[in-house]
Amino acid sequence: MQFLSKGSEAVLNPKAYLMRSARNRLINEVKRQSRTHCVSLEELAEEDHPLLADPEAHLHVCDLAQALEAALAQLPLKKRQVFIYHRLEGYTHAEIAQKMGLAINTVERYVIDATRHIRTQLHSFCPADSGLVEKAGKPIIP
Predict the structure, then answer these.
(1) What's the CATH code of the domain at 121?
(2) pTM for the full model?
């Protein structure tokens, strides 16, 4: 229906068009849902549980979570929302743009800016040999 609402030329085969549109929407929804599937720590098998391997891991995870919350709180509201939608909830840039009424380029810029800010704020949690070393005072964003 999005295509038809844009005032385009007449569709030659409306039934085929609707079937293809429905199929594509279903595929997109399945992709979106598969990106956001998470397993809670309680559901993990005991041998797969990351917090049991190291006694200090729980403390480190709590510190990291607090630092992430603080870094997110420092971002402007729209950048924070875009980052959360994209990185934590798995929405695409186009989905976020449509949901928030922003241009796709704006969404892309917000994701980049927020990612840089968070990496800078959480730099102390990153081991020196992880490949995210600094060059000229700026963290490298892969």
Answers:
(1) 1.10.10.10
(2) 0.54
- Cα–Cα distance measured from residue 42 to residue 50, given in angstroms and rounded to the nearest whole number: 11
- Could you give the 3-state DSSP secondary structure of residue 90? coil
For the record, the structure tokens of 137 come out as: 């005072």
Give the total number of structural domains in the chain.
1
Question: Looking at residue 108, what is its pLDDT?
Answer: 95
Q: pLDDT per residue over 104-120, tens digit each?
A: 999 999 999 999 999 88
Residues 121 and 71: beta-carbon distance below 8 Å: yes
| CA end-to-end distance (rounded Å), the chain | 38
Range of the structural domain that residue 113 is part of: 59-128
CA distance 111 to 90: 12
**Tokens representing residue 66 in the block:** 């607090």
